[in-house]
Design a protein that fits this description.
Number of strands: 12
Radius of gyration: 46 Å
Mean pLDDT: 76
Strand content: 15-25%
Oligomer: single chain
Number of domains: 3
CATH topology of the largest domain: Tetrahydropterin Synthase, Chain A
Structural class: alpha+beta
Largest sheet: 5 strands, antiparallel
CATH architecture of the largest domain: 2-Layer Sandwich
Length: 317
């Protein structure tokens, strides 16, 4: 009987141990996390026995770790991000109200319609500050929240910079100068980083795409102007001006060619006439000399022949 009871107790204890190990295993599995290679993770307490305190940062590509039961892990991208204001719909961040273009005004009062893409990275050195300052407000770790953050904080600075740059060009330059998009892009990018970060309340929260994780340097944003368009009526008017100017150049060229041709013909005629006169003069000279030679009274022979600009007078002896 004792043996039976002992066996029962031992079996019960073994079952408890197995059950406890199973619960621990399930709990560990339930509270385990990983971070993808393109995300950085922020761990915050959130279980039933603790407050929502910051617990640590997990770098991209971290292996499995125990984050805690019901604790939160917020993931933010470490790869290059695009704030896309284009009509092609290719950019991954163009999800929450980002427009297809920004319209400014040229120095001569014409609409300047710009499509562009600004590229940047989250500063991983300040990712906790970013999360607690603005990430929580928009739920920026989610796609929709990230789109809202761009719309509210990045778009206004991009728009303002684009308005300013449009005003530095006239319509004719934008229509004809192939370097205008690059010039405008450089101008937009010049103070963009500082303006965007100031709007979010933390210096260097976003950096340019050349930012390196763990480095202090926070490069400038990069901006590519995809296109600059003018209203159709303005574009048509400028095209007509180009055609008219080209036609005018063609007419002038044809007139000059005709003048040169006519001058050439005049010069050729003059040359032919001069050659003909020279031949006639030589003939007359020969005939006069012949007549003098045949004259029985040589002293009475006089020859007057033109030679160049003067006159030769030959009087016989």
């Amino acid at each position: 009987m004792t043996t039976s009871n002992g066996g029962t107790v031992a079996g019960f204890v073994a079952a408890l141990v197995v059950g406890a190990l199973l619960i621990v295993g399930i709990g560990y599995w339930w509270g385990s996390e990983t971070t993808p290679a393109d995300k950085i993770g922020l761990s915050y307490g959130g279980g039933p026995f603790e407050g929502k305190a910051f617990q640590g940062i997990h770098n991209p590509g971290s292996g499995i770790f125990f984050n805690g039961l019901a604790d939160e892990l917020y993931l933010y991208p470490v790869t290059q991000r695009d704030a896309s204001i284009t009509s092609d719909g290719e950019a991954e961040d163009k999800d929450y109200g980002m427009p297809d273009s920004i319209t400014g005004r040229t120095s001569d009062g014409v609409d300047c319609i710009v499509e562009l893409v600004a590229t940047f990275k989250v500063n991983t050195n300040k990712v906790r500050e970013f999360h607690e300052t603005i990430g929580l407000k928009y739920k920026a770790w989610e796609d929709e929240g990230w789109g809202k953050l761009l719309f509210k904080n990045v778009l206004p600075s991009l728009s303002s910079a684009t308005y300013e740059q449009c005003g530095k060009f006239d319509a004719n330059t934008l229509a004809k100068d192939s370097t205008a998009p690059n010039q405008m892009a450089l101008g937009i990018a010049e103070n963009l980083k500082d303006n965007i970060n100031a709007s979010m309340g933390v210096d260097d929260m976003f950096c340019g795409p050349e930012f390196k994780m763990g480095k202090d340097k926070c490069p400038e944003f990069e901006v590519v102007v995809k296109s600059i368009r003018l209203p159709d009526n303005v574009k048509a008017s400028l095209e007509k001006q180009v055609v008219a100017a080209n036609n005018s150049i063609t007419v002038q060229t044809e007139a000059e060619n005709n003048r040169i041709k006519a001058q050439g013909e005049t010069d050729a005629a003059a040359a032919r006439a001069a050659a003909s006169d020279s031949k006639n003069l030589d003939f007359l000279k020969v005939e006069a000399m012949k007549a003098c030679a045949e004259n029985p009274n040589p002293g009475a022979c006089v020859m007057i022949l033109g030679a160049g600009d003067g006159v030769n007078v030959n009087v016989g002896p």
